[in-house]
Every structure is written in structure tokens, then in C-alpha cells.
Amino acid sequence: MSADNQQPGGIRAKRIQADNIVSGIQIQGGDAQSASSLVQLAQAIQRGEITADDITTRNLVSGLQYIADPAHATTEDVRCELASLRQQVETAIAAQEIPDEDEAKAATEDLTVAEKELGKSQPNGEKVLKRLKNVNEILTQSAQAAEQAGKIGALVIKLAPIAATVWQVTRGLLGI
Fold this sequence. Notes:
The protein is of the alpha+beta class. The chain has 5 helices and 3 strands; from the N terminus they run ββαβαααα. Helix 2 runs antiparallel to helix 3 (about 100-120), helix 2 (about 75-95) runs antiparallel to helix 5 (about 155-175) and helix 4 runs antiparallel to helix 5. The N and C termini lie far apart (about 35 Å).
């Protein structure tokens, strides 16, 4: 997959096979007033399109997906989101958008550990949330650095709110 330089956020590939593909924003939870402001945000964001000769996916989002009731999320849903986020973080790392190599390695490791832990019959919720909080902090700091450097189209800027959302949904799911 590669981003089109003419259109930020575009995903182009010959073949895409994934559970969840998002080009834009995916938010879970909140009230109707929040949803209204998110629509305005989505309209303000320039985004690309998702194109491929062959797309096999369960969920395809281009723009904004707002899920009002994340209470129906399952650990498998979160695991899929973590796998997708990890792949995107690896893309951001390859583009050198996470400046600290140790933090970049920690983010991918934390996502992998959290994903594996959620696959267990009795996952350790505290362990998962600790890992996701760390990922959230790393991506938020990297996004802030990218914004300060004027790299508005940086992938890491889009990943920070996704990480925060996954962390919050997981907290609710695990009841912690």
C-alpha cells in the first residue's frame, strides 16, 4: 500500500485483504452532540480514496465511521483493530515519522503483546491497557512533533486519535 502524494490518506494497492480498512477517521462511543462535531471534522479533513483491483474486507471506511455504542465491541474486534493499527504504525516507522527508534520498537511490540493477550481466554486487562496507553502516548508525542515540524500529511498524525480510541474502547470492553 502506498499513499498518493497528490491526495493525503489515499490507499492504493493491487490487492487488499484485511478485516478493517480505514482511510479517514473511525470513532467509537460518545453522544449525538459529539457525532455532530465529528461530521464537521470529517468534512474538514482532506482524505484520499481506497482503490484496489481486489479488496477483501469485513469493514471498509473512507471518511468517517462513528459507532455510537462501542459496548457491542468484542475482544476479536479490538484484536483486528490492533493488527490494523500495528501495520499502519510500521508504515509510519518506515517513513521515519516516529523519531525515537526505541519508542518506535516499543509501539509495535506493545501492539503485538496487547493483540496476543486479547487472544487468550482470560486476558490480563491491566497488561493490555498498560501497553495501549504506552502506544497512545508514543503516537501522540510523535504526532505533535510532526505537526510542529509542519508535516501535516504525516500518517502518525492520523494514527494518534485511532490509538486513543482503541485504548478507550478496550477500557470499556474490559471494564477497567
